[in-house]
Design brief:
By secondary structure, this protein is α+β, with helices and mostly antiparallel strands. About 25% of the residues lie in helices and about 20% in strands. The chain is globular. InterPro entries: DNA_primase/pol_bifunc_N (IPR015330).
Length: about 190
């Protein structure tokens, strides 16, 4: 969490998968549809911060909490099935393309790209079938674009199968790649 703050990336506490008991998730929702992969608070957008003192206090009070990173502020994230993501990553690297940070959450690969924020041509640019909230994952299993008002689960968060989200290519402080260039590579791999 503090490493993300150093990059200027806000974070917030996330629910975590339960290993024991009858519930699959630490949240209070019965039958949580996305165990351990969502913010703890409905006010997550307002709470997300880079304040290291606050982040330290939060995780000291809740050390098992997962890490949630809001998108559409500093970065957007392309979220693709693992097979397509690994194929695209290899193709990008073979072509000399600077991939930027890339993480895996088990069955998904996340490509961090420069945010499009709130572009001037938002009426044309914002309405994109790739814009999905985390709650629509089952409805859109292919390529998803997490941007404004969305979030992603970040390393080293715990996954329901006992593994952890991890970086395939960790953030290095360099400028993030242009989303349209990454999308070109991902679209080919996701067809």
């Amino acid at each position: 969490m503090l490493e993300y703050a150093e990059l200027g990336w806000a974070s917030v506490l996330g629910a975590h998968p339960m290993r024991e008991g009858r519930r699959a998730c630490s949240c209070d929702r019965v039958g949580c549809p996305d165990p351990g992969a969502h913010p703890l608070s409905p006010a997550w957008q307002m709470m997300a911060t880079t304040d290291t003192a606050l982040l330290t206090r939060w995780w000291e009070q809740n050390p098992e909490a997962n890490v949630i990173l809001p998108t559409g502020r500093v970065f957007d994230v392309f979220d693709v099935p693992a097979t397509a993501g690994h194929t695209a990553l290899v193709a990008m690297e073979e072509s000399g393309f600077a991939t930027g940070p890339v993480a895996t959450t088990g069955d998904r690969v996340l490509f961090y790209v420069a945010t499009r924020g709130a572009p001037e041509d938002e009426d044309e640019w914002w309405s994109c079938h790739l814009d999905c909230g985390p709650e629509t994952i089952d409805e859109t299993p292919g390529l998803r674009w997490h941007c404004r008002d969305s979030y992603v689960l970040a390393p080293p968060s715990s996954l329901p199968d006992g593994s952890h989200a991890r970086w395939l290519r960790p953030p290095d402080g360099l400028p993030l790649p242009d989303p349209l260039h990454v999308l070109d590579h991902l679209a080919d791999a996701c067809e």
